[in-house]
Amino acid sequence: MLLDGLPPNANPKQIGAKLNEIANKARTAGDYREIGNLYGFQLLVKTELPKDNSTLERVNRFFITGEGNIKYTYNNGLMAKDPETAAMNFLRALEKLPGFVKQEQEKIAEIPKDLPILQEVVNGTWAKESRLSDLKTELAAVERKIQLSITPETKQDASEQAEKQNEAPKVQESIIRTKGVHSPRGVL
After folding, report:
1. Domain-embedded: residue 173
2. Relative to the CA of 19, which of 55, 105, 124, 175 has its CA 20 to 30 Å away?
3. 18 with 1: CB under 8 angstroms?
4. What is the pLDDT of residue 183?
5. Is residue 114 assigned to a domain?
6. Domain for residue 160, yes or no?
7. CA gap 169, 154 in Å, rounded
8. Same structural domain for residues 92 and 36?
């Protein structure tokens, strides 16, 4: 394990002490910061605030990441206080990888079993598709009938309103003439 700030031949106690120092003092503002490497994997630290923001205490979590940028932790990323145990933190995270690989291989093995069923669903025709098409056509016909039944009434209403407007001045004119009242300018 190579840690920044330590010689390559550092013993586990020195490595653990350096990791505990980083756990106590690092402030990354929520970003991942590289602190070293182990077998070609990057060692990272990230400073997190508690989700409830009730305290100002910051927590430094440690991660190990490889080519796929997938981050692995041991003990939820928290560093042990004992220097020798702290030095083993990243190795224990790597020890979990074979179990993860096995789980993913089992999931991949299940996919070909489901593939024929999924292809049948995707490529098959749905039994009610023709019925849906017929109902859409019927709906369009009903909407057309409704529009046609509404349109003549609208034209009749417009012509009736025009007739009423034409009749209204004649009535007012006859009232004015019969009573002999003079109307103000612009009324007639």
Report:
1. yes
2. 55
3. no
4. 55
5. no
6. yes
7. 24
8. yes
pLDDT at 171: 47
In this structure, the answer to whether residues 96 and 166 fall within a common structural domain is: no
Can you give the residue range of the structural domain that contains 60? 2-100
Length of the chain in residues, anyone?
188
- Higher pLDDT: 29 or 181? It is 29
Span 45-67, pLDDT tens digits: 999 887 766 567 788 999 999 88
CA atoms within 13 A on the CB side of 172: 10
Encode pLDDT of 100-119 as tens digits: 889 999 999 988 888 888 88
- Nearest alpha carbon to residue 58 among 44, 72, 45: 45
User: Number of structural domains, the chain?
Assistant: 2
CB distance 30 to 18 below 8 Å: no
Burial class (CB in 10 A: 0-12, 13-18, 19+), 17: middle
Distance (Å) of CA 47 to CA 9, 59, 153: 28, 6, 73
